[in-house]
Amino acid sequence: MLKRAHYWALGIVTVLTLLLLNLPPAAAGRLKLAVSGVFLPLFGLAGSSQSFVDRASYSLLTRRTLISEMERLQQENAQLRLAATQAQDAMNENARLRAMLGWQPKVAWKRRPVHVVGRDPTTWWRSVTIDFGARDGAAVNQPVITNDGLVGRIRTVGPTHSEVALIGDPECGVSAIVAETRDNGVIQEARSSAVGDGYVTFRTLQNSPTMMAGHHVLSSGLGGIFPKGIPVGQIADARTVEGGLYTEARLRLSANLNRLEEVWVLVP
Amino acid sequence: MNWITPLLLFVVTWLAVFASTQFAPLTGWLGVPLAFVPGVIVYAALTHHLLLTTGLCIFAGLGVDALSANRLGVSVVPMFLAGFIIHNRRHLILRDQAYAQFWLGLATAVFVPLATLTMMSFGQREPLRGWSTVWQLTLSGGLNGALCPAWFLLFDALRRTFDYQPVAESSFRPDRQIKRGRF
Fold first, then answer.
1. Which 164-193 residues of chain A touch chain B by CB within 8 A?
2. Is A214 within the bounds of a domain?
């Protein structure tokens, strides 16, 4: 037998749910940002405590470790300077040749370092939250990468935080190309909901019998979101599907999506 | 009951929703986020008024949706249904027994994501699911089942600390007092 309180509770939840699920997408997005604002103090607290722990761990390092690390970094820095000079020469030459041919100049992307401050609490989406919002210059669809490779794209932007849809999420399709065979294809949503396996499905636009395990897959630049040439992953195995029309491959992602702590956002 | 216990329940829910977005290395290794909210709902449904449980489910559901890629409001109904059913059957449940708390925590942790997935399958965006979902539900259910008695211990301790204590009955009756004196 239902009491008066039961009817009240049922009524409140029904009305609220119907109202929220029928909101226009823009209003729902704004309301979602407002609700997530309730958790901002906790994100700030978690970030501060993380940096405190990091600083405390630095003080435990021995002088010998620091000196050897500094020497290693100095050597690496010298090598990188040399590589950067060579790359700059190549870029200048590329720009001159493009100008001679009358091609459009390439857009130079700036890399902004950001922290991953949270993961999706559900198991059916692949997304993370970063501490990079509209006031820092974030915009929807900006690519997110690590030093290892492509991570995803910014899906929603808040004032101080943004949500990133990771590769394998239904809202993060990537147009990609096999570096060795130049076969074009699309990285589809993951078959499994677990981020932990590190694999996604890559399907070429036509049958590609030469594609095989170990080949590298890069972003193709088609689609207008991700710049060309970002490493995405390595083919683990490939098979022909739909009567030989397409080739489908299991792709092992270059970036470890489970261990994302610092990432780069590419800002034009 | 005073207002401190419900307030603490909301504060713990706030922390529990946030905590489910953290602990990346552990959740990456397990392959499932640590959902702490179902155990709190079980406790609230068994020990508090229905309207407070409803408020808590709305707060937790909106929080989970705001921090995830879910459509806002989609988690509210599954959480409320879990709380509503437990609250309605609370007179049949041995709420002080750890095994009852374990099974309630497990059932709620499995029911809420399943109901949310079912609701979302009617929407425009198809969520990711597969055989790994079964593993995730099993693990999440087990974790919440194990955690539920711990929530009961914590909240009962908080309740004992902050709530009004029952007045102890004294056997002394003034009308039965033997008055001694000269007369």
1. 165, 168-171, 189-193
2. yes
Range of the domain at A156: 110-267
How many angstroms separate the Cα of A182 from the Cα of each of A14, A178, A233, B20? 53, 5, 14, 42
A200, part of any domain:
yes
Q: Can you give A65-85 as a three-state secondary structure string?
A: HHHHHHHHHHHHHHHHHHHHH
A42, A119, A135, B10, B140 from B14: Cα distances, Å: 9, 16, 26, 6, 19
Of A36, A57, A78, the one marking the end of a domain is: A57
ipTM summary value: 0.80
The reply to whether A227 falls in a domain is yes
pLDDT tens over chain B, length 183 residues: 578 888 989 999 999 999 988 877 777 777 778 888 999 999 999 998 999 999 999 999 999 999 998 888 899 999 999 999 999 988 888 888 899 999 999 999 999 999 998 988 887 777 888 788 888 889 889 999 999 999 999 988 888 888 777 777 777 777 777 777 765
The CATH number of whichever domain residue A239 belongs to comes to: 2.40.10.340
Residue contact A9–B31, C-beta within 8 A: no
Tell me how far apart the terminal alpha carbons of chain A are, to the nearest angstrom: 62
Minimal C-alpha gap between A165 and chain B (Å): 9
Q: Which amino acid is at B149?
A: P
Q: For residue A236, which of A255, A249, A219, A247 has the smallest C-alpha distance?
A: A249
Is residue A73 in some structural domain? no
State whether A242 and A163 are in the same domain: yes
* Contact criterion met (CB < 8 Å) for A6 and B84: yes
Q: Which of B4, B145, B30, B182 is nearest to A123 (CA)?
A: B30
Does A128 lie in the same domain as A241? yes
A-B contacts (CB, under 8 Å): 167
Same domain, A263 and A149: yes
What residue type is A203 in one-letter code?
R
Q: How many domains does chain A have?
A: 2
Nearest to A17 among B22, B76, B140 (CB): B76
Residues A136 and A245 in one domain: yes
d(CA A63, CA A238): 50
Place of tokens 């399907």: A203
